[in-house]
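ok so I'm stuck.
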Amino acid sequence: MRYYLHLCRVKSIKLIFFVKIVITLLLSALLLQQCANPVMPGGGPKDTEPPKVLSAVPENFSVNFDAKRIEITFNEFVKVTDMQKNLLISPPVGKNPEFRLRGKTLQILFEEPLLKETTYTLFFGDAIVDLTESNPLSGFSYVFSTGSVLDSLSLGGIVLNAFDLVPPEQAYVMLYASIPDTVEPDSVPYLIRPRYIARTDEAGHFNLGNLKDTVYQIFVLSDMNSNLLYDMPGEKIAFLDSLLQPVYVEHFLKDSIDMMSDSLLNDSSYYDTLLVSDSLRREIEQFGDTLVDSLAIVNNFLPELDIQLFMFEEQDSVQRLLRTEMVRPGLLQFAFRYPTKNLIINELRPFPDSFEIIEVYSKAADTLLWYYPPQITDSLFLLVQQDTIINDTVAISLALKQTAASRRKKEEDEKPPALTISFNTKSRNLDLPRPLQIQFNEPVLTYKMRDTSWMIINEDTLINRLQFNKIDSLGFKYQIDTTFEPDSRVMIRFPDSVFFDYSGKTNDTAQLNFNVPPLDQYGNLFLEMNIPETEKNIIVQLLDEKENVLNEKYLSASERLAYPFLIPGKYLVKVIFDRNGNGRWDTGDYLKKQQPERVMYFPKTIEIRANWDQEEQWELSIDGQTSD
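replied:
not stuck anymore, here's the structure
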């Protein structure tokens, strides 16, 4: 019995010991897992510092590079975000390298052979961030050469949209060096990937560094499908007609010098691998490691922004009839790709009886409207021709496709819809010096004023004194033949059945209340335009802050422009150099080597104050520069 108790005690001790071992092993495994997987620490002040590069193997700015893998070690744990979006490799590679994180080290593994005697730059953008607060290591790049020297020439400039001079959201600036003999020079952006590439920043600036000493063609693409080719409808392009020669400017130092180790900065032999000018070499040797803290010196390395490229979207040069459709009963629309002229529409079959039409072209002349009696529901068979460009046959039914609901609605309607009327008042104000206008949605052929109209101006009531003048040939707009004085209150009423359109529709009774503000609520702008004698076709546009065109004038010589009765606010002035004299801005055409028409903006926003005259002067120059 005693032996049995002793045996049980021994087994209990062994079991307890075994459980302790298991618990210890589990705790150790958990601890090792936490060590292997970095996690965000809790507590303490918020981390606002981006990660810093401690070392790189091979060293950044290495020559005779023949490694298959790059390892960059940071001072803290990092992660990579949107690598496909942020990473840019110049020259481009066929397949992006693989990226791995091992602790605080980022590994970059190339999956294809690199070009010989070539300097590569890996731009990481904002792809590398710290683990705790995602602070990005902005602007970091890794540079190496597969040859014995680092190419170090540079080009810099700015890219703007040609129409409004706004920087594009993102554009790729691409350089092309030697072109194969089998490729036509004009086909370069369509068929060949660039030798060097860079992205524009938010302001449209770009810098291309580590370039070989040769001449280049330069293009800019919006590149919607990210294949570095100009091959998608809607892609924008910019180009220069002349070849470019890069200069000896070490602009990459500004982006990368903070990442270089002190030993590299103090190693004078490192600079022997760079193709630098003697003056720059002397500055480096003189300032040494203080170069990092000297913003003035670093700025001297930046290339001047002397290349200007203007992006545009080409128009398809082939004119087409896009569609013919019945907008509603009584209105047929022909839509074209471009403004049309010399258009001929013939009937292939006789028109229905009493089919009379009124033709109206849109302001841009790219749409033709046919107004016809809405009761006609036959089909039309037409031949649409424009010179030798368009030769289309059209068959269209004028019968309205009816559903059960539309048939019930038609039965419920006791009378046809009335003419739609609108006025040119805004927020119950009629701004000076505009007269009161009435606009209709269809051509009004006649009007007949009845004796129940009246108009009250302040305290004076005028009975049967309303008179209208047609101000366009088709009758879309009429103008009241009355001049309203400033600081007036006006009430107008005219009865139904005054205006009649081509189909017999007429208006309902209309009543309008509005004010004419006093003069001291407006400001005036006087702009002295000084234009070079060589410029004969200048379009001057007055714009609001949203760049809506408020006024447009055409100048062929210097002139003092007056803009009276402006509502207080901020205004812009834009000039279009109308190269072909067609009265509008025209885009470019790459194959024709035609740049988009040049535009300029007055160099400051003009603020108009109430009861104030604003005087401005604008000196335009031939080279596109401006002064006020």
